[in-house]
Design goal:
About 40% of the residues are buried. β16 and β17 form a beta hairpin. The protein has about 550 residues and is of the alpha/beta class. Helices cover about 45% and strands about 20% of the residues. α2 packs across α9, α8 packs across α9 and α9 packs parallel to α11. Bound molecules: pyridoxal-5'-phosphate. The site of pyridoxal-5'-phosphate (PLP) has 21 residues, from α5, α9 and α13.
Amino acid sequence: MKIWRILAIGPTKVIAITLFTAVCITLVIAWSAGTIHNLWLDYLTETIRAMAKQQFLEKVLTARVYDVARETPLDYLERISSRFDNKVWLKREDLQSIYSFKLRGAFNAIYQVHRIHPELAGVITASAGNHAQGVALAASKLHLKATIVMPTSTPNIKVSAVKSFGAKVILHGDNFDAAKDYCLELAKKEGLAFIHPFDDFNVMAGQGTIAHEIIRQHPDNIDAIFVPVGGGGLMAGIAGFIKAVKPDVKLIAVEPADAACFYEAIKAGRRVTLKEVGIFADGVAVRQIGKKTYSMIRDLVDDVITVSTDQICAAIKDTFEDTRAICEPAGAVSLAGLKKYVESKGLKGRTLVAINSGANMNFDRLRHVSERSELGEEREALLAVQIPEQPGSFKRFCQIIGKRQITEFNYRYADDSIARVFAGIQLTHGIAEKIEFIALLKSKNYLVVDMSDNEVAKLHARYMVGGHPGASVTNELLFRFQFPEKPGALLNFLMKVGKRWNISLFHYRNHGSNFGRILMGFQVDKADHETFRAFLSSLDIPHWDETENSAYQLFLK
Ligand SMILES: Cc1ncc(COP(=O)(O)O)c(C=O)c1O
């Protein structure tokens, strides 16, 4: 019997149905083969990942670091915690013997190479920073010869620190890249092991011991750990460990906005080389994230944020206020990031950890840090204000400022009609208060320019306001005053001066001490000198006549 007779359909339909079924079966087989293939690939990738994770975890657990490193405390930051309504902890790597965590990775890397190659002639690296000290110390502990290549511009203080561990220092090249090229050449020629500052699994594993300590020191829940990123060795070590044992803990990478090589790499989906790198936080001033570190951390890090120089300075101050310790800019990067993250996400009641990664700070940088910290906290506004050049207008301007604390006041006579004042005003309610205050000045017809984010103003112009007023100021007397620093003291003083004499020069900077110091120029006719001096004596404010001072005569008159 013919099949179409049984099915009661025509032969063409049977052929069509058969063909259609054959196509469907082929498609299903092809699809499942592809899926199986993909599933198999995924499985393999996952297995390799899991093995790598396990292997790295083992590397951290077996890393040798305590021959030179100490287990640093995890300190609770009372002030920051209550200010931000979160529980903030600080891992104190600034307390290592070389004042940074870098000895962990350096020692582990050198120890592991030496273990495999006991005949090793020595080690070499190129660094002008904390890694140089780490390598020098680690090598001396293992009785190995260490050679450190540094750019010729390296400050003497860093050269001597490295030499004090018995390392040989070679100064070569104008910049880090030139020093590194020479270092690699020497390594080959002299059979020395090159110790990379971050792109080496043994270095990363050494840094990872920090994460192991944190987990032991704080076994309860941690919501997030903030990690500074330069080349990524510290983050790779911490991420490799944390994501293997406590995957729920968030890892937030923090970089300076002007040295954000990891942030840019994540954005581009590949490693990029930054054209310019800001060197304020020199420990993390790296042009390109490491190859190995990038492949390891790109999928493990939960978020990347950047912070400004002013925010880093504010975090140095916060660290000082809570611990009385001074950290280097790179050491404060993670706390700066923590504060920014908490504010932007509105976090409350979380347990957060920042890493103070180092304290190798030149003392003379503190001045810059203290000046910028208030701006970073939005606790100071820097304004250029134009006021009329006439007796009493300075006082009127100060009356508008009212009870607000003045942090800085610079003024020099320029012409007969207008005067430009450079003023620093303390803010207690951040940006909102600044905006309100600028609006108030504008409503009183003052021309105002906000200088708070103007780098030239902050770095240079504020110190240069002044100069020679030319022939227009002929009858000027210069006086230095010292008065107890308290709110309103400056205004009181100006109220007493009144409108009798025009003020032609004014310089005041709050130094945070008990006494405020002011340098002031008055236009006083010769015939009036006696009256003026008698008036000053009546103020009962210590003052000194500086009219003959050579600094004044040379630069301001
Ligand atoms: C104080 C300090 N913090 C952070 C870092 C960043 O470490 P990494 O380059 O491993 O990301 C460094 C690197 O030298 C450093 O010295």
